[in-house]
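Shapes recur. One chain:

:::
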Amino acid sequence: MAKHSVATLMVAAFLSVSTVTVLLMRPYNSDSSCNTNNFQNQIHSSVGNAPLAFMKSKLVLMVSHELTLSGGPLLLMELAFLLRAVGSDVVWITIQKPEELDHVVYSLESKMLHRGIQVLPARGEKAVDIAIKANLVILNTAVAGKWLDVVLKEKLAPVLPKVLWWIHEMRGHYFKVEYVKHLPSVAGAMIDSHTTAEYWKNRTRERLGITMPETYVVHLGNSKELMEVAEDSVAKTVLREHVRESLGVRNDDILFAIINSVSRGKGQDLFLRSFHQSLQIIQEKKLQLPSLHAVVVGSDMNAQTKFEMELRKFVIEKKIQDRVHFVNKTLAVAPYLASIDVLVQNSQGRGECFGRITIEAMAFRLPVLGTAAGGTMEIVVNGTTGLLHPVGKEGVTPLANNIVKLATHVEKRLTMGKKGYERVKERFLELHMSQRIALVLKEVLRKASQ
């Protein structure tokens, strides 16, 4: 009883504190390796416990296209918390908000207000005045570009030179002139992976005839709070017991989890097909293994009803209801990372732009089974910290085989998890972000003052 009480408190704590996003950055410029080397040299010379301290008293306007539990808005919000922590004055604007009261928007805005972040309507003179007065404007996602013309209008010119545009999208339908026509005029762009940066550079030039501004690749990272839990064996044990009991899963069962908002692009359907196929392989080969379970974290019947109904129908048709568990979308991923054995990152198409959940899983010493596309290839070392498989239907059988491989080789799982943890410690910590993003913000401020 005492253990479960502690676990409940810890889960509640994670529900109230969103993971602070950490960024591992270096500039992206495929035409000039010299610029990259200079930037890296600056990084090595950057020291101090608070590299972002120079942002104290700076006014920062953050413009997000929406405020949801999806990656882009949460990343921007978490950067807002980091800047507030060093004394920045931060103002937040959400372009698209539901007309009726939305509990997610209300909760996230409350978190920001509690941290001293001012929340303003997207339109109106106050928004324009803040944009003009701000030392820095961070525009989040390509879609947010519509706000520039609609709201700023004739006052756009003095704002563009101090805009840092943070882009997360990989899909082609975001490449519209009305979204990104001002990209060449802003101070800089941040993009979450080298793959995505290359994609944006080529697409904007070939499809739209515009040139990207100076662009920095932004690798995400793990907060001190998440790392503390990941490195606390007692906390992990308590969370593991609590979550597994709630799912009806035994301690020695093997859990494979996919933790993303449920949508076709995240590949939950193909993952479940692979999982079912892995069970067939185990049965055909008469392998003696603990029970395998699949956990789908990110369920939201209000948002993706048709697709999620397809998933649930498949589970019923294949008679694997006792092996597949659906969990509602949540900010509290740590309890599930503590409870599972393997993370599956199955984003389709061009893959995940980066995939913060991947490095969070690696912090918990979990191997990762990921698609060989997008930012996942910049995180997972194939054969060392996890195993990669193709996107699309071609990847179903390879993923199934990889599931069986990790299910049957405990030592391989543990070794890959250990190597993943070491990679996180080397590359994906808050310290790395603090040193590097400071250099980018200093450069944007320098340009804005010219």
